[in-house]
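*** Fold description ***
***
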Amino acid sequence: MNQDRRDRLRDAAIAVLAQEGGRGLTHRAVDSAADVPTGTAKNYFPTRDALLRAAAERCAERYRALAQSLAGPGPGPADAAQLAALLAELLRDTAGPGRTRVLAYLELRAEAARRPWLAALLDPVAAADFTAHAHLLRAAGLPAGPARARALTLALHGAVPHLLTGAPATLAAAGLDDLDRFTRELLAAVCGECGEENR
C-alpha cells in the first residue's frame, strides 16, 4: 500500500480524534479529513479498532520525533537551565503545534480504559516518559532517583490538561502562564540542591 497515503490517513485520524473525540472517529470522517475518496480509510484500516491502532502508533511516532528534535544530538542537557528550557519547549508544543496530537492521545487514553489491547499499546509510550526524564535529570547533573523522576513526570503530565484548555485563571494559579519559570521552579522543587545525592 502507498505509505504516504497511509500516513495521511493516520494523521487525519489524529485530527478527527482531536476535533470530534472518540465518538467521531469513523472511516467516513477520516476520509473527509484526509480529502480522499470515500472508502479509502476502510481499505487501509478495515475496522474502527484498526483506525484506533493507526492513530495511536502515529501519535507515538510524532511524539518521539518531537522529543528527539528538542533534545538534539549528544547526551542531553548539560545543566538544570538547559533542562528547564527543554521541558518548557515540550510544554509549549502541547499548547501550540502539538495540540492536535496531544488531544488525540488523551482521547486514545480514554478509549484504552475500555480496550485492554489499546491500553497495552499505549503503555510503553507513557512508561517511556519516566525513563526519559530520569535520563535527562542525570544528563543535567541533577538527582535522578526513581522518586524524583516520577515526581517530575507526573507534574509535567498533570500540566497538560490545563495547557490544552488554556483557562487563564487556572494557568496563573498553576504557574503555567510562564512556562520558563514553571519548569525552573519544578526542577528546584523536585531536585532541591544540585549537589544532593540521588534517592
User: Anything to note?
Assistant: The CA atoms of residues 84 and 185 lie 9 Å apart. The chain has ten helices and no strands.
